[in-house]
Amino acid sequence: MRAHTHSNPLSFFHRMEPMDLNSIFPHFSGTIDLEVGTGMGLFLRQYGASFPDRFIIGVEVRKKVADIVAERIQADQLTNVHMVYGSAERLIEDALPDGIIDRVFVFHPDPWFKTRHHNRRVVRPSFLKILEPKLTPGARIYLSTDVTVLWNAMVPTLTEAGWVPIDDSEFWTTHYQTHWKQFTQSESRSQHFGTFQRK
Fold first, then answer.
1. Is 4 a member of any domain?
2. β-sheet with 56-60: strand ranges across
3. I want to staple 83 with a disulfide (CB 3.0 to 4.6 A). Which of 59, 70, 136, 179 is the partner?
4. For residue 160, what is the domain's CATH number?
């Protein structure tokens, strides 16, 4: 399956309706985890299978990819995993209630190298501002990339917004299973990853 690597998240203008999470997830506990940009869903699915008591939503701007991931989630019978096609910002701002997001996963986001496209990057002040009211106390962001210049931009953006790095080695050694991890290792690329928590 071929899909465009670059999809502009700012091209989503339509608003989203509030999600009824109690109807989406059986035995919903009241908080969710969110993966922004799922790729083909390797992490989303293995995470959902590893943590059946957590509820995770994946959001992806490429419709073909989102549809395939949704089919795989259904085939795996993962009732605690839900896939959404669209913009993460629209999903967070429109569809999710305040104080509900416990973990946010952003793995290998598009670096959007050109300066005029930096406003399309996931980790930027406007995104964090939208995310802020939706977070639980002590919420975490898990971040990875193999692009050093992007890492060096994202970390100060997080720290300036009140996020601090924490030691979470168990996650990165045990649960960080993505095609990006496999790719960066096979290509011997730089690997940057870390967990950040709200002060």
1. no
2. 81-85, 56-60, 32-36, 101-107, 135-145, 192-198, 163-166
3. 70
4. 3.40.50.150
Residues 52 and 156: their CA atoms lie apart, in Å, by: 34
* Count of domains observed in the chain: 1
HEC readout, 63-129:
HHHHHHHHHHHHHCCCCCEEEEECCHHHHHHHHCCCCCEEEEEEECCCCCCCHHHHHHCCCCHHHHH
- Domain hosting residue 129, numbered range: 20-198
Nearest to 89 by CA among 68, 61, 48: 61
**Annotated active-site residue in 110, 146, 167, 168:** 110
Q: Which residue has the tokens 């795989």?
A: 72
Tell me, yes or no, whether 6 lies in a domain: no
Span 39-63, pLDDT tens digits = 999 999 999 999 999 999 999 999 9
* pTM listed for this prediction: 0.88
Q: How far apart are CA 59 and CA 92, in angstroms?
A: 10
Active site includes 53? no
Nearest Cα neighbor of 66 from 87, 51, 97 is 87
In a domain, 14, yes or no: no
